[in-house]
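Worked Example 4.2. Consider the chain below.
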Amino acid sequence: GQRAGGVVSIATRSGTNDVHGEAFDFFRNKALNTLDKFQELQHATKPDYSRQQYGVALGGPIVRNRLHYFGTFERTREHDFFNVFTGRPEFYQQFEGTFEGGSFTNISFIRGDYQVSPKQHLFYRYINQHTNFFCSGCGVPGTNTAFSNNDNLIPRDMHAIGHTWVLSNRVLNELYIMRGAASDRTYLSKDYAPARYQEVMTIPASMGGGQIIGATRYVFPSLVWGQSQCLPPCLAGAGTRTPFNEVQEAFSITTGSHTYKFGGSIQIFPTHEWAAGNIFGTWTFSHDQYFNPDDPNFSFANLRGATQFQASFPNLQREMRNHTYAAYVTDEWKPASNLTLNLGLRYDVQTGIWNEWRTQSEYPRPLPDVDFASRGDKNNVAPRLGLAWALAERSVLRAGYGLVYTNITNLIPRVEGSALKQDTINIVNPSYPDPYQGRDPVSFVSTAPPNITINGNDLVNAPVHTSSVGFSHELLADTGIHVDAVYQKAVDYPTDIQVNTRNPVTLVRPLPEWGQIIQRQPIGWFTYKALLV
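Applying the procedure from the previous section yields the following structure tokens:
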């Protein structure tokens, strides 16, 4: 019943009638690291580094032969360091040097197994993972050296229940229920943006309201400094959260030379995202200059050479819906002792992902070439065929074909869903330090035709035709050779196209009231060919 490709089976451990435990620790430091060739040519010093991964596990009986437990805890702490070298120490000396970043990850796991009867088995599993990246993105090399950024916390957890029931020696039923969630939250780094740098702003109602804490972002030719972050109430449901709910059912029957399997699944997979506006704004300067908020004699108002000011508002909540339904039937048929056929048919349908639940009335103005109600793809019937044929005692021929429909990801409806709902300010050669010159920021929103990204009404789940043929032969008792050829072709793949291009002579767009319109159309394709020996 799986979609395509190789088969991956993962089995988590469970407790037994005896109590067993273990502990482990892996350690690594800079003595086990090496510099790359470019660093060697620069005679760079090997940076400090340490990584420690340790954990414990324990399993045993609660009721012997009936109820067992198994649990683990694991922590990985990576003490990594980032370098900040602006090349202009006369201006930014206090930001230059080596600073500790790194990350930590905590993973906890617990599982319980209950033998209801000789023919029924029930299990429960819970996994929790928390990962925190410190000063994520700091010290990134490039045109500018980034210093002062957010910490990034990514918590995940999952509950799962499974029930296996042997109804008879020919009939098996399997039920699996899972609920999980993943989040991504950013917090102003306490180490790299301390309180003396932070500002608290009460946002005007015209910009969405609420409060925000952070520091205005300053971009110099050799340094980027500052990062903003929302506070409650604007951070209700902050960051990104993606809950995942799934139910799978499979029913297997063996009769003579046939093994039939009927199954299906339901997946509810939305994403709730908080897209905070850049309320404080970003200043860009034409030249490097002295910048040191720690210096009591330093004043932000004394900066010179501002060439651009950018901001966006209001704070925006985005919702992406994604429901997937699937049903399949397979037949493993052995018409002869040396021949096995695998026949299958699968049906998939996605809803919500096409933004078909939206209406034009939720936008400040109707989106062009968008008909939400007409969208969807409901004819995804996929046949599967596999063959294994023993040509002789030591040779086997294999062949297979399957049609697979790819899922549309939650990123596809994301941009269209927030079109025209978050304004962007871009002021060239602004007045510093007050780019708005005492006016309401809303009055500075550009009146130029807006740029948007929309989805084509004819988007589909891209079909992938995948086929393979292989041959295996035993050369010696312990030596064999396998040769497999694989071919895949996908069509109707979502591809971005600019559909409001200016006339090369008149420079007028087909829809002059709009700027650039990027439309995702089902016109992409790719092929894959491989020979495996």
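The first strand starts at residue 20 and ends at 29. Confidence is low (pLDDT under 50) at residues 1-5, 231-237. Compare this with Example 4.1 before moving on.
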